[in-house]
Automatic annotation (TrEMBL):
One of its GO terms (molecular function) is hydrolase activity. This is HAD family hydrolase. Gene3D superfamilies: HAD superfamily/HAD-like (3.40.50.1000), Putative phosphatase, domain 2 (1.10.150.240). Keywords: Hydrolase. SUPFAM superfamilies: HAD-like (SSF56784). The lineage of its organism: Bacteria, Bacillati, Actinomycetota, Actinomycetes, Kitasatosporales. It comes from Streptomyces tibetensis.
Length: 221
């Protein structure tokens, strides 16, 4: 009877566990207004959104934003988002799913590109922190890929094997980060990306977190 190395889920935060898409669209449109760009609908946003974010802006502007434009937009985005995120809640079913996964003796963690100092109190405020063995937000500049962060995140988790790990997120980048470390991925359609763009990645795509967890169970078995 060795130590049980069970299945592990690495959760994304924004657009996955945290249902903040309305605040994100509002913040994006506020940032666009800085440069006199037209506001986007949710559908259009999901169709065009990509990381790194400057690339997303390039799709809309026909060119990359200048350093000054990028800083101005980034600033407006974060200011708007900080004001409006307070009215956002957890995604439907999240609390029960997190508790259920943990009580089945499995482990889970959060890896987010949201600023670490702001992420931790937010997770704590929802009363879900005890469900995770680790909560990592972004340290360092914004705009990069999650892959390098995922390497560090998994390395810091004791006894978690990449091949028994499933990343659940709402962005193609979550799947890229998973594959980079030899883990699996499930993508959820409730966040920033359209189903069509997620399906192009070639990993399972689901419409609810419940389906995501069921899929994670299957993949990690």
């Amino acid at each position: 009877m060795g130590m049980k190395t069970g299945a592990h889920i690495v959760w994304d935060w924004n657009g996955t566990l945290f249902h903040d898409i309305d605040a994100i669209i509002g913040a994006t449109n506020a940032a666009f207004a800085e440069l006199g760009l037209e506001p986007l609908t949710l559908e259009k946003y999901r169709e065009l959104y990509c990381v790194p974010v400057p690339k997303f802006y390039e799709r809309l502007m026909g060119r990359l934003p200048t350093e000054a434009e990028w800083e101005a937009m980034d600033d407006v985005f974060h200011r708007y988002y900080s004001e409006h995120r307070t009215s956002c809640g957890l995604t439907a079913g999240a609390v029960e799913l997190l508790a259920g996964w943990r009580s089945a003796g499995r482990s889970q963690s959060i890896l987010s590109m949201y600023v670490h100092e702001e992420l931790v109190p937010l997770v704590r405020g929802f009363g879900i922190e005890p469900h995770f063995i680790r909560v990592d937000g972004r340290t360092g500049p914004s705009g990069g890929s999650k892959a390098e962060h995922m390497v560090r995140h998994l390395a810091s988790l004791n006894g978690v094997a990449p091949e028994r790990t499933v990343v659940i997120g709402d962005a193609a980048d979550d799947a890229v980060a998973a594959l980079h470390v030899g883990a699996r991925a499930v993508l959820y359609t409730g966040g920033s990306h359209s189903r069509m763009s997620l399906e192009a990645v070639g990993v399972p795509v689901v419409d609810t977190l419940e389906e995501a967890v069921a899929e994670a169970e299957r993949l990690a078995a």
